[in-house]
């Protein structure tokens, strides 16, 4: 298969996946997460039920469709830090850059989506799992790059990931309070800078490349 054909195949796959997620999320918003079946999602999206489950083995990920990006984001930011940059500095810089470019992982003004996640126990549980996976991935990178198999990388990852997690829920709160997207981005940037700053005394020089 040619590179171009493979590229077109991947594009089609991504578009199908996004379409299924969009259709499912709209149904969940209208009727509730627990009241919509996978078969109904497949029917509404015009695809086979197996196509839905192939793209989304977990029903919750139809809503939290960027879970893979979320899990890898912290480890990627630290793994790609610049020479002389600490893990904390890399995460602060990366988060502020994501705010500036309006990264889809940053909560925006989709109040119905945020309310769906907040009010659905299964989605809240899956979101906690995603945050935990992101923390574990970050700890693994820190352990590998510092050569420390002890508790320090895990403790550092827990503190850094906690900031990312709290920023998500702060963004969610702002959305549900009806704050505009531009105001949310401004508030989250300021909050992130403050929160990471609070960790500077303990982690400011940790894992400096």
UniProtKB/TrEMBL annotation:
What domain of life does the UniProt record list for this protein's source?
Bacteria
Residue ranges of the annotated DNA-binding region, renumbered to this chain: 37-56
The answer on whether this UniProt entry bears the keyword DNA-binding reads: yes
Q: Does the keyword Transmembrane apply?
A: no
Q: Which Gene3D superfamilies match?
A: Homeodomain-like, Tetracycline Repressor, domain 2
* PANTHER family, A to Z: HTH-TYPE TRANSCRIPTIONAL REGULATOR BETI, HTH-TYPE TRANSCRIPTIONAL REGULATOR RUTR
This protein is called what? AcrR family transcriptional regulator
């Amino acid at each position: 298969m040619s590179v171009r054909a493979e590229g077109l195949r991947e594009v089609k796959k991504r578009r199908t996946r996004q379409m299924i997620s969009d259709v499912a999320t709209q149904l969940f918003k209208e009727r509730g997460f627990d009241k919509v079946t996978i078969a109904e999602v497949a029917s509404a999206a015009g695809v086979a039920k197996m196509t839905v489950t192939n793209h989304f083995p977990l029903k919750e990920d139809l809503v939290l469709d960027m879970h893979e990006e979320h899990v890898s984001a912290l480890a990627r930011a630290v793994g790609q830090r610049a020479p002389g940059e600490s893990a904390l500095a890399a995460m602060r810089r990366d988060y502020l850059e994501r705010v500036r470019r309006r990264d889809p992982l940053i909560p925006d003004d989709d109040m119905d989506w945020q309310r769906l996640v907040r009010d659905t126990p299964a989605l809240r549980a899956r979101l906690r799992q995603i945050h935990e996976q992101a923390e574990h991935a970050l700890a693994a990178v820190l352990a590998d790059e510092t050569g420390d198999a002890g508790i320090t990388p895990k403790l550092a990852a827990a503190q850094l990931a906690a900031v990312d997690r709290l920023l998500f829920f702060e963004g969610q709160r702002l959305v549900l309070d009806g704050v505009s997207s531009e105001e949310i981005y401004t508030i989250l940037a300021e909050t992130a800078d403050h929160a990471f700053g609070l960790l500077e005394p303990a982690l400011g020089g940790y894992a400096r490349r």
